[in-house]
Amino acid sequence: MSDLFNTDAEKASYGIGLQMGEQLKANPFEGLNLHSVFEGMKDAYAGDAFRVEIPEIQAAFEKINTEIQARREEESKVLSAEGVAFLEENAKRAEITVTESGLQYEVITTGEGAKPTADSKVRVHYHGTLVNGTVFDSSYDRGEPAEFPVNGVIKGWTEALQLMPAGSKWRLYVPHELAYGERGAGAAIAPFSTLVFDVELLDVL
């Protein structure tokens, strides 16, 4: 640990910097300049005259937001195409079942318990990845199963869980329409992402 921040005020001030840094990291743009960020903070905090006029700042924000949106749209098109290609190829496998909605699943083990309904609450273990294998969430890694209502999760899960007897473990291949769609979910799941889940239905509660 650093000995640069000894007082509570110094530690809290450093914490503010960490929070701001995390926010910038989560929403970066090409050319982001931390020195300019710091200079803006100093001027605002000291009450000094702004060195860039507000209309210029607003115009810069608008231009960068437009560039970010255009880049995200291009990235989304690529992800969408990759997901479609992945699912088309995956559907050719004999062990894959494709439902009317487009959900694909593979039965790993079949349990003998009851099937939940949309109104049920369930306890599950799961492991979620992108189609490239990147893990974005895993109850197995946390060492604790999750509990939630069947109708309180993404559409692909709601559909699959109602087909699974308790004690089953399935691998789900979820197209973006049945997952997080055009919006994605946080930094880990981009818009139009096809997702892969290992889902183990432990209990219907």
What does this structure look like?
With 205 residues, the chain is an alpha+beta fold. The chain has 5 helices and 7 strands. The chain has helices spanning 8-26, 34-46, 54-90, 139-142, 155-161; strands spanning 97-98, 104-109, 121-130, 135-138, 146-149, 169-174, 195-204. Strands 1, 2, 3, 4, 5, 6 and 7 form a 7-stranded antiparallel sheet that branches. The longest helix has 37 residues, at 54-90. The protein starts with 7 loop residues before the first helix and ends with a strand. The relative contact order is 0.14. The model has no long low-confidence stretch (mean pLDDT 93). This is Peptidyl-prolyl cis-trans isomerase. InterPro entries: PPIase_dom_sf, PPIase_FKBP_dom, PPIase_FKBP_N, PPIase_FKBP_N_sf. GO terms for molecular function: peptidyl-prolyl cis-trans isomerase activity.
What labels would you give this structure?
single chain; seven-stranded antiparallel beta sheet; 20% strand; elongated; Peptidyl-prolyl cis-trans isomerase; EC 5.2.1.8; PPIase_FKBP_N_sf; PPIase_dom_sf
Short description:
By secondary structure, the protein is α+β, with helices and mostly antiparallel strands. The chain is built from five helices and seven strands; from the N terminus they run H-H-H-E-E-E-E-H-E-H-E-E.
